[in-house]
Amino acid sequence: MPKIIGADEAVRLIKDNQTVAVMGSGGALNEPTLLLKEIGKHYVKEKSPKNLTLFHACGLGDKDSCGTDALAYEGLVKREIAGYWGMAPKMARLALEEKIEAYNFPQGVAAQMYRAVAANQPGVITKTGLHTFIDPRIEGGRMNKRTTEDLIKVIELNGEEWLWYPAIKFELGLVRGTTADCNGNITCGEEAALLDGCSLAQAVHNCGGTVIAQVKYLSEQKAHPKSVTIPGIYIDYIVVDSEQKQTCETDYSPVLAGDLKSPLDSVPRMDMGPRKIIARRAAKELPEGESVINLGVGMPDGIASVAAEDGYLERLHLTVESGLIGGMPMPGIIFGTSRNPDAMIDMASQFDFYDGGGLDVCFLGMAQADRTGSVNSSKTGRMLTGCGGAINISQNARKVVFCGTFTAKGLEAEVIGGRLKIDREGEIRKFVPYVDQITFSGKYADSVKQPVMYITERAVFELQNGVMTLTEIAPGIDLERDILQQMDFVPRISENLCLMEEDCIIK
Fold first, then answer.
1. Catalytic center residues
2. Complete edge-to-edge strand list for the sheet that includes strand 368-370
3. Nearest of 238, 239, 257, 262 to residue 247 by alpha carbon
4. Which of 26, 73, 178, 288 is most buried per CB count within 10 Å?
């Protein structure tokens, strides 16, 4: 059995300047929280380890105290390569203050990187990221001025452009499971996803590095071979955290772990307002039949709520990029988990399916949209969130639906007599001439004839011949006052402009 050590002893194994791969997702899902906190504590006392390079596919943290925010001390981290930054505001602040090198890789690429490294491949070669801020001809995934090295390259294969993300050498890996058996095999009985633990451990092991696993329990019995998610042959050390929680919100929920099915009538109903209007209108774009769907974090997760309320959620095949299939994706900080999932697969395999065009439709959030149909959901002003899985998902889905309020920060609206009334506009305009950062390229979507929609509480747009085109307005909305005067460009107005169906704004 691999050596069982304390968290403080494990941290002393970490050397300055090492590249560290960390498992986990938002809301402390599958996150080795104890180890991360211990690293931070040790640095405060000993100023070691320092100048680390962190690599993680998902966002890590709860927007408060865990995740990479536990490492947000100047000097501890030199460089962070993250799939998502939005769960760790303290670390994002270090990036915005130019105190660390900050990179953003698409979440799927980061997950696939572990497999490429484990197999001694040259890295990940994919079209994911072309013509977005990930493309080295635009920003190269660099999120601040201090970050200058090109980690992504454009190459040509068979006359086509591809992005090459060169392989990374990992010297330390931090993974998590629920139980370690007598042979050090890791099982995930209480976890709410599998994520990338096995491929991460393989990659670090094959780089000659050290793999440390955090678990809640030790078992003297040998685990059933089919339940092992990270074989003990990849693990060097095991740290036990008896207080380990399933997520930052749950000690252990059998519903999230797939051990118990809960009735959907217990799902709280959404109050009528902009969010519910958007969800109801977006739900009309759900395909009929055996279609595969992805709901993004934030505004789109309301679609699952209205589907549960209206009694058809169980007929939908909803997926989450963390590797969950079926059930109801959970909203908020524990996005990445699902109520009543049908299946859990590893995250890289989920992205293989997405990248290959397996999604019939995806619903994603938007912070900005511009006249060409490009969308920014990764960086605006002092808000640094990163792309997460949005680029993999949006570039390869058969249809893309963006969801968001028309303006942001302070928007107030109400429904009176089946008509929408804007009581107060948000301070931030979201429809701008050019987005601050290209998370989704309208020009690229238009070139491949990908259907794209943009749904707000008061208006619906479509990308038609490369131009943002207004196609619907909600009952009660004045075209000039509530739409055109609240945009920083003039959209094309469809000759067939119509009213949004009234059932979108029913109580």
1. 321
2. 375-376, 368-370, 431-432
3. 257
4. 26
Q: Which amino acid is at 324?
A: L
- 3-state secondary structure at position 328: strand
Residue 346 is encoded by which pair of tokens?
């590893």
Q: How many other C-beta atoms lie within 10 A of the C-beta of residue 140?
A: 22
Contact 136, 150 (CB under 8 A): yes
Contact 349, 59 (CB under 8 A): no
Mean pLDDT by 10 residues, the chain (507 residues): 90 98 98 98 98 98 95 98 97 97 98 98 98 98 97 97 98 98 97 98 98 97 97 98 98 97 82 95 91 94 92 93 96 94 97 98 98 97 94 98 97 94 97 98 97 98 98 97 98 97 86
Alpha-carbon distances, residue 290 vs 198, 272, 307, 360 (angstroms): 31, 30, 16, 9
Distance between alpha carbon 365 and the CA centroid of its chain, in Å?
11
Other beta carbons within 10 Å of 449: 6
Angle, CA of 367, 373 and 377, to the nearest 5°: 20
Q: CA 486, 489, 493 angle in degrees (round to 5)?
A: 90
